[in-house]
Amino acid sequence: MLEKLQDWDRRLFVFLNNLGIERYDSFWIFVTDPRHWIPLYILFFALFFIAYHWKKAVFTSLFLLASVFTTWGFTNLVKGFFTRLRPNNNPDLSDLIRVLQEPTNYSFFSGHSSTSFCATTFVVLALREKYPWIFIAYLWPIIFVLSRIYVGVHYPGDILVGMIVGISFAFLFYRIYLKSGRRLY
Question: What InterPro entries is this protein classified in (predicted)?
């Protein structure tokens, strides 16, 4: 069963990766770099400070950071356990895919996916009552993780599992945040 899932994952990856158009390569390379999203990260924190008094904004920001860094650490722990080769490092796929980046660490599961969905979900949970439009923030992780397939470094399964893990950690940390915050406010 696992082999069949991995085969479907590889086939879907090859199909999606080959939808890439060379003319858009520079866009996807730009999108996949977390540093290029720094203005969005700053906006998330600024929204906390606009929505809440400074103590609650700092408290919320610290919980956001804790959720993302915990997710990132868990992701790296799992990658070290499963040691799944990235598509760009898989010799069986080298003639079938377009590779725009060549990281050498492991693939399962996507850190871009887990951390971006964790951050976005936590921000949405924390701000949905103040800003009903905050759900559009999910455009970021969707575009961000699609870039990982486009540049040839993650299978769709890596992204899907990363998304589930990130959202789960966000809900967990948000529940802890709510319980902890009751004592402060």
Answer: PAP2/HPO, PAP2/HPO_sf
